[in-house]
Amino acid sequence: MMRDLQVDAMLLTTEPHVRYLSGFFTQFWHSPTRPWFLLVPLDGKPIAVIPTIGVTGMQQTWIEDIRSWSSPQPQDDGISLLLSAIRELPRQFGRLGMTLGIESHLRMPANDYRQLETELSNMELVDCAELMLNLCNIKSAAEVDKIRYICELTSDSFVALPGFAQTGQSEREILRSMRIDLLQRGADHTPYIVSASGQDGYGDIIMGPSDRLLEDGDILIIDTGTVYDGYFCDFDRNYAFGYASDKAKRAYTCVFQSTEAGLLAARPGATTTDIWRAMWSVLEAGGALGNDVGRMGHGLGAQLTEWPSLTATDNTTLETGMVITLEPGMEFEAGKLMVHEENILITDSGAELLSKRAADELPVIT
Amino acid sequence: MMRDLQVDAMLLTTEPHVRYLSGFFTQFWHSPTRPWFLLVPLDGKPIAVIPTIGVTGMQQTWIEDIRSWSSPQPQDDGISLLLSAIRELPRQFGRLGMTLGIESHLRMPANDYRQLETELSNMELVDCAELMLNLCNIKSAAEVDKIRYICELTSDSFVALPGFAQTGQSEREILRSMRIDLLQRGADHTPYIVSASGQDGYGDIIMGPSDRLLEDGDILIIDTGTVYDGYFCDFDRNYAFGYASDKAKRAYTCVFQSTEAGLLAARPGATTTDIWRAMWSVLEAGGALGNDVGRMGHGLGAQLTEWPSLTATDNTTLETGMVITLEPGMEFEAGKLMVHEENILITDSGAELLSKRAADELPVIT
User: Which of B108, B137, B166 is the C-terminal boundary of a domain?
Assistant: First the structure.
């Protein structure tokens, strides 16, 4: 892939990319102070250019060439060391890949990126974001096993939830209980767990949990990205409290059927847009007013969300080994949303559910 | 501060900065797909330029001018909308601030940043990273209350740890129990909890937890960044298992005394380097071979680590209202580290502990 892109090396700066190509796995990326660099030459093993605090950890990986500086050092936080490592590389194309495009950012000060550009004046910096998306997109069996494990464990926690959630509790209390339940079942941690609730439906799916107390007639959605060994699940479940109104039940059934259509459409050779269309037609027939999410599913794995996106225009062709979410959602009356989500693996014979399928009728917690 | 920097507006892209200036608080930043922009004009309220999925959430903040587009849309993910918002702003200096320098990154594709630069050809993009560091660095009473709450709660969990940790357990098991204990005490979540262990000391402080089983004679360090309402604590504790060797006890006492020296040195008007020197002189007298961490403390708050750094050259003057960690550490024999950490508030009269002071003798879990 690097030869096709005609780059002599790639320079990677973010946690998922450095982990993917080095095996370096640490929570320390939460500290934004220090940059970390992995240089992947066209031939041979990657070279780590990292703060001294990470050398012992990097030595536990398959990386052999580890260069370090005592960071933080704001005047020159690894840049001169990095430049000399880049200049030592064999040169064939005179091009260095960095993630500059779709779904990417550089985890380093923009001024340091500008300095690289200036000092490497005889080398062109070109975008390798798409290369990395295409590389990480097809999951190995080992990666799928981790995602399946966390999907199953989280499915079980959702099934158990009516045992620890009830009318009168706040969203915050219920989600705290679910965090504990997930840990007790063997999850490593839950970086992402949000909720929303309201009579018959909810108005939002990315804020929360709030201190709102659940009332009879409410619908509660919980959406979680829970992690095992660095791999995410990402799906949600809906619950009615006390009773479910007919319109809430109808919306639930419509979105459930939309997921069914997505499951049938998801196979190698189909596109993300084919799935989007299959799911949206069910929602539209069911009276959907719109969808502010901007897509109805996406890749996942080492990150909560990964490329591609299930939209009307994405048109990415599915391949065996991709792991994606199906996430149909709709506004079914003003300010009332219903959203479902499942995680699937694309196999030669179609979609394989990684999450355990949601109940086909809206669960009611009484 | 913006007038001093001569900028007509600042454009912010990261979670802590957008949250600080808008009140927009969501876990959704875990999804790297969509960019989020907050434009802060010299006069008037900030303008949010955000994906439609976040509009309902942003409406709950004090932001009134919310402009949105349906994201993901890789060809133009908010850039044309952002450009038109920037062009509408009153112009006095012809300069737009973005975080380009120290401890910063841009959470948007570098190609989109380049496009902004090209299309805003009559506007200079200048660094406002230092402005944001200086702004966020002095904590309000409300911010201090949140940090104090999470520090106290986490201190209590560390004190309780001997009740749920014992020889024969793995680091991973112990940290899982501590995660649960922290949630039960009222923490929101624990984005960061790492550990290391070994006979008499440990070799690293940013990896882990590992599956290593604790043995008698081991020292275990646990370092955690646990969060309440968006604010972090960041400190560690050490435990001996079974018994503590004399050299481990000596190292512990030395690092404890180093922290005492830091507590005395930390007051308004002193510099980060004064504290570093006070702490390092104790470690050096105690036989320290070195320190690969690169610093002995740092700011904290809305992020696990914030500017400034306690180093030999940082020289930042402390002011009332800063919250920092004191984190002396040393290699006391080849491959054996001992590191301590406390969180403090700088007050008019000196350092106020936010974490409850570690035991003055190495705790032994028997």
Answer: B137
CB atoms within 10 A of CB A227: 22
Count of the separate structural domains present in chain B: 2
- Judged against a pLDDT cut of 90, whether residue A317 lies above it is answered with yes
Distances (CA, A) of B6 to A257, B85, B93, B148: 56, 19, 6, 36
Count the neighbouring beta carbons within 10 Å of the beta carbon of residue B146.
20
Task: Provide mean pLDDT across the span A131-144.
Answer: 97
| CATH number of the domain enclosing B108 | 3.40.350.10
Sign of the CA dihedral running B62, B15, B12, B6: positive
A133 closest CA partner among A265, A344, A302:
A302
CATH label of the domain that carries residue A361? 3.90.230.10
B269 min Cα distance to partner chain A (Å): 22
Distance CA(B245)–CA(B199), nearest Å, equals: 9
How many residues can be counted in chain B? 366
> Which residues in chain B (185-204) have CB-CB distances under 8 A to chain A?
189-194, 203-204
Using an 8 Å Cβ cutoff, are A318 and A270 in contact?
Answer: yes
Q: Are residues B261 and B201 in the same domain?
A: yes
B179·A189 Cβ contact <8 A: yes
Whether residue A348 is found in the same domain as residue A227 = yes
Our CA-based measurement puts residue B107 at a distance from the nearest CA of chain A, in whole angstroms, of 6
Distance, in Å, from the CA atom of B346 to the CA atom of B322, rounded to the nearest integer, reads: 5
Say what the pLDDT of residue B341 is: 98
Inter-chain CB proximity A33 and B113 less than 8 Å? no
Neighbours of B360 (CB within 10 A): 10
Binary contact (A109, B111; C-beta < 8 A): no
Residue B231 sits at the chain A interface (C-beta within 8 Å): no
Domain encompassing residue B31: 2-137
**Given the DSSP bridges, would you call strands B189-199 and B329-333 parallel, antiparallel or unpaired?**
unpaired
Residues B130 and B182 occupy one common structural domain: no
Residues A127 and A168 in one domain: no
Nearest to A111 among B57, B71, B100 (CB): B100
Question: How many helices (DSSP H) and strands (DSSP E) are in chain A?
Answer: 10, 18
Any idea what the Cα angle at residue A70 is, between residues A64 and A73, rounded to 5°?
130
* Burial letters A96-121, b for 16+ CB under 10 A, else e: bbbbbbbbbbbbbbbbbbebbbeebe
CB contact under 8 A, A28 and B206: yes
- Say if residue A126 is in the same domain as residue A158: no
Q: pLDDT at position A175, please?
A: 98
Confidence of residue A290 (pLDDT cuts 50, 70, 90): confident
From A102, A137, A172, give the residue that closes a domain.
A137
B74 vs A192: CB contact, 8 Å cut-off?
Answer: no
Tell the burial category of A9 from Cβ atoms under 10 Å away from its Cβ (0-12, 13-18, 19+).
buried
A248 inside 8 A of chain B by CB: no
Residues A128 and A152 in one domain: no
* Residues B310 and B187 placed together within one structural domain of the fold: yes
pLDDT above 90 for A281: yes
Task: Tell me if the pTM is above 0.95.
Answer: yes
Please say if the pLDDT value at position B136 is more than 90. yes
Residues 294-353, chain B: which have Cβ within 8 Å of A?
294-295, 298, 303-305, 307, 309, 311
For residue A251, give how far its alpha carbon lies from the nearest alpha carbon of chain B (Å).
20
Residue pLDDT, tens place only, B262-298: 999 999 999 999 999 999 999 999 999 988 889 999 9
Whether B305 and A27 lie within 8 Å, measured CB to CB: no
- Let me know: does B11 contact B96? Beta carbons within 8 Å: yes
Specify whether A238 is located in the same domain as A145. Answer: yes
